[in-house]
């Protein structure tokens, strides 16, 4: 593949220019800033590498979709997003978030790590391959959505309606980083999430607290309901909650053991006496990565301002998120939660579903995962850090696992890329090495069983 | 006492003018509006009836104190306050809150029911007595504080420093009302209160909720702590909590039975399926009046705004109030609460004392209580509604019971007096009848054993 890398070398400034073009175009989905312009620009860049490119409407911002046919039967897809987080707080940026600036080999701009640097790297890899060889050995599909930063509300529906367009034998997911020592990270899955809001109501109005002797309290009622959800060892008590949890494989545990995680440093940094249940070592890592959660994101009832107010609250609200692991199903859990609360005497508590994403993962020993890992060894010259599952969530299941498509996430970020924060950045060396890594994957993909 | 009532009749306009003067003078303690002017006016009114009058400084607003000597040995004291609640929301008043206005026999002004109408009625009763008879049969003390609406922060200290000034054989407490059918109410005590704020902390910063698998949550920690305080039958689990609770006497239960309380109407008005534990009838009344509470006034942790935020809160706060019955001690309970939480594994939760007031009461069959009740029969011509204990709280213990002084609360308000609300009012008939009732008490007081 040296011939292809030679083209990358010759076109360094071109690919950098694509990145500058894309990063100087704001595309803030949450604020509806520049979305149409950016979708158009991405479509133009796709067409520029010879892809059939088009915008596919959704109920929100369009998906920009592209295809390049290959000589083989296999299909590799790339999932990225062209929207970015809002740039605020502006005063903390050392250069304007939408005026891309390179300082000491580091490229600063809102969205460059999450996710425009990766989007351009994928265009560049295909461009260089086509210029060096005239054709790709595999079919390539580009799926660039515009709503990732607002929770991908229409991606599942898009995938369902366009199953022919998303069908692939493997998907390179949006992004990746390296650890503080420079080791490239590879992510093989994401936790799912069920986010619900519970509302308890009793009387129809807040009362003077003298009534607390005889009028039921919404706050106590909600607390009692929440008290039935977990035991004091952090174990969720909803019947069936753990039934679908897949235990980690031997390969998973091996990957966990190599995950860099300085637990003492992290504990001290957070000011904690201990982690949950006093866990340390492998048990701590396993719970972090492979166990689901039941977390209170927020709870509120009654008077919470300064000073005294003697009030009996008539309403109490709580936001809960459950992080789910394969093969838990957020919709099944939502029903189990409602049934359980009703059985425990809390049928009157309203349970509203706010968000549900399935967990998703590709086995550590899957040939596609192993190909990406081998690519890190070849291109970066070191062993990657493999995360069988990362504890965050995303729409990977809706686009990939639901249709049997293995997905692996890797990209051009670094340990200090500052996603969602001021001075977001990537290192240019990582950008070009990432392109080379993608070229390796393109070249080897049709050798997979 | 017809000769004295004759004087009241002759001086109706004078007493009404005193009320107008006092009500047109704003005295909003919470906003430091007109406090010095009002203290001076009250001192002048006291001097005007021949009392030795002076202002006694406290760390806050002064106590206006007055004495009128009597021919007998006994001493009767009057506790009132010259401060009022803020008048807001102004747009809901039908006439200016500090421009006293009489419409159809009802006097409207901020503070007229709570507590200026009662303060003036007590001045008027003594004035009429002195004018008719030349002297009082008992010594009278007036204790008019200026901080009741902000929680009487300096009254306990004032009483402790001036025990000679507050010493009395009985105290007529600040206020009273009638029920919707016009029956005068007599209150023989108040619940105490312990108000605390609990704060649980875990990590030193809020975290992404993916950390919930291994990082302890302040919200769950606080909820578990609160879960140890009460069982699901509303019984407080702090050891010793009920040890000092006095069971109601036969006279108390008799008074309870006559307390007008339409439980079905009240339940429906509040939109409740049932009261706590499904209680009805005498058991419901007894719990309302004679049982202590443990109430969540407010609880807050994490993200409580609209929409989704996936956060693991590092801090959780809760405001609790315990309403206490005789002879529970709020300071003792504060220590019991801290000890209990520590024993249950929550020593790290901060427990801050916000307010503590002892419960206070005078026995239903106490001669002083019976005198006030007899006065209602004589003056109003009907049986009063006697509350052995009202479920609210106030500084009665600090001024009276602590020094062995029986206290009874009665006054000139009505069932729709709108304390603390727009269009606060008293009926003028109640004002003059209240004066007559006080004259009856003055005349009979030295007949007590």
Description:
The structure is a homodimer of 449-residue chains. Chain A is of the alpha+beta class. Chain A folds into two domains: 2-190 and 360-447, Aminopeptidase, CATH 3.40.630; 192-245 and 291-357, 2-Layer Sandwich (Alpha-Beta Plaits), CATH 3.30.70.360. Helices cover 34% and strands 20% of the residues of chain A. Chain A has 14 helices and 19 strands. In chain A, the strands form six sheets. Chain A has a six-stranded mixed sheet with strand order 1-2-6-3-7-18, covered by helices on one side. In chain A, strands 12-14-10-15 form a four-stranded antiparallel sheet. The first copy, chain A, has a three-stranded antiparallel sheet with strand order 4-5-19. In chain A, helix 1 crosses helix 4, helix 2 (12-23) runs antiparallel to helix 4 (112-133) and helix 12 (367-380) packs across helix 14 (428-444). Chain A starts with a helix and ends in a 5-residue tail after the last helix. Chains A and B meet through strand 11, helix 7, helix 10, strand 12 and strand 13 of A and strand 11, helix 7, helix 10, strand 12 and strand 13 of B.
Overall number of strands of chain A: 19
**Shape designation of chain A:** globular
Could you say what the CATH architecture of the largest domain in chain A is? 3-Layer(aba) Sandwich
Instruction: Provide mean pLDDT of chain A, rounded.
Output: 95
Classified by CATH, the class of the largest domain in chain A is Alpha Beta
Largest interface: A-B, 71 and 71 residues
Domain module tally of chain A = 2
So what's the oligomer here?
homodimer
Please identify the structural class of chain A as seen in this structure. alpha+beta
Strand content of chain A: 15-25%
CATH topology of the largest domain in chain A: Aminopeptidase
User: Main sheet of chain A: which strands, in order across?
Assistant: 1-2-6-3-7-18
Query: CATH superfamily membership of the largest domain in chain A, which one?
Result: Zn peptidases
Pick out the low-confidence regions of chain A. Answer: none
What gyration radius of chain A follows from the Cα positions, in whole Å? 24 Å
Helix content of chain A: 25-40%
Largest sheet of chain A: 6 strands, mixed
Termini distance of chain A? 21 Å
Total helical elements of chain A? 14
């Amino acid at each position: 593949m040296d011939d292809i890398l030679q083209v990358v070398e010759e076109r360094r400034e071109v690919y950098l220019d694509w990145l500058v073009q894309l990063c100087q175009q704001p595309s803030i989905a949450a604020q509806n800033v520049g979305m149409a312009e950016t979708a158009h620009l991405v479509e133009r860049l796709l067409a520029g590498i010879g892809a059939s490119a088009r915008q596919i409407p959704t109920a929100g911002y369009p998906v920009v979709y592209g295809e390049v046919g290959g000589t083989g039967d296999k299909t590799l897809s790339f999932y990225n997003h062209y929207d970015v987080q809002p740039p605020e707080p502006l005063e903390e940026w050392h250069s304007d978030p939408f005026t891309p600036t390179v300082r000491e080999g580091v490229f600063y701009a809102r969205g460059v790590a999450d996710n425009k640097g990766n989007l351009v790297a994928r265009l560049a890899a295909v461009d260089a391959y086509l210029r060096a060889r005239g054709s790709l050995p595999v079919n390539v599909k580009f799926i660039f959505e515009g709503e990732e930063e607002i929770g991908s509300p229409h991606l599942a529906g898009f995938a369902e309606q366009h199953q022919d367009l998303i069908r692939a034998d493997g998907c390179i997911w949006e992004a990746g980083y390296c650890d503080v020592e420079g080791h490239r990270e590879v992510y093989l899955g994401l936790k799912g999430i069920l986010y619900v809001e519970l509302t308890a109501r009793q009387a129809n109005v807040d009362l003077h607290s003298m009534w607390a002797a005889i009028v039921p309290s919404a706050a106590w009622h909600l607390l009692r309901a929440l008290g039935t959800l977990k035991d004091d060892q952090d174990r969720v008590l909803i019947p069936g909650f753990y039934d679908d949890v897949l235990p980690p494989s031997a390969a998973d545990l091996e990957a966990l053991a190599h995950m860099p995680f300085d637990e003492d440093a992290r504990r001290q940094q957070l000011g904690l006496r201990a982690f949950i249940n006093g866990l340390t070592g492998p048990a701590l890592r396993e719970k972090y990565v492979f166990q689901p959660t039941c977390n209170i994101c927020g709870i509120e009832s009654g008077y919470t301002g300064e000073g005294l107010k003697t009030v009996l609250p008539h309403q109490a609200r709580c936001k809960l998120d459950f992080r789910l692991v394969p093969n838990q199903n957020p919709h099944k859990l939502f029903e189990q939660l409602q049934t359980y609360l009703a059985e425990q005497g809390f049928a009157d508590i309203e349970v509203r579903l706010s968000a549900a994403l399935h967990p998703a993962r590709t086995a550590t020993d899957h040939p596609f995962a192993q190909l990406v890992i081998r690519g890190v060894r070849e291109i970066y010259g070191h062993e990657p850090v493999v995360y069988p599952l990362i504890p965050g969530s995303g729409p990977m299941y809706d686009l990939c696992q639901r249709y049997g498509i293995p997905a692996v996430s890797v990209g051009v970020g670094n340990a200090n890329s500052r996603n969602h924060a001021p001075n977001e950045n990537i290192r240019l060396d990582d950008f070009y090495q990432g392109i080379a890594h993608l070229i390796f994957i393109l070249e080897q993909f049709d050798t997979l069983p």
